[in-house]
Design brief:
Blueprint: E1 16-21, E2 24-29, H1 34-40, E3 47-48, E4 55-56, E5 69-72, E6 75-79, E7 90-92
Parallel strand pairs: 1-7
Antiparallel strand pairs: 1-2, 3-4, 5-6, 5-7
């Protein structure tokens, strides 16, 4: 759910775009964070705790916790509450702590 009317604030939405979450296309607006776009689409389960595998959702919204970390365009541990959504972006649920891809650094 997105707010459309507010007694004090004015909402200026960016262009409507689409991105993918776990293989499913979703709509968002330029200027929104990934987590806000997922929340607006009714997706509240963003990650699981590393040790006890308990569900985590949209919590701090300022990048200070680890509740919203996901795999974005193949990159693990992206804080989706501070990362803006982009057209065609691929967002996936992350299992565990996430692993960085191996790079050979040109060797």
């Amino acid at each position: 759910m997105r707010l459309s009317n507010h007694p004090i604030l004015t909402f200026r939405r960016g262009e409507k775009i689409s991105f993918f979450f776990n293989g499913q296309p979703l709509e968002a607006y330029l200027g929104e964070t990934i987590a806000a776009s997922l929340h607006a689409a009714g997706i509240y389960h963003l990650s699981d705790s590393a040790e006890k595998h308990r569900a985590r959702g949209f919590f701090c919204a300022i990048g200070q916790c680890s509740s919203c970390m996901m795999l974005v365009n193949g990159r693990p541990n992206v804080k989706t509450c501070t990362t803006l959504v982009k057209p065609g972006m691929v967002v996936e649920s992350q299992q565990g702590k996430g692993q960085l891809p191996l790079w050979n650094n040109g060797k």
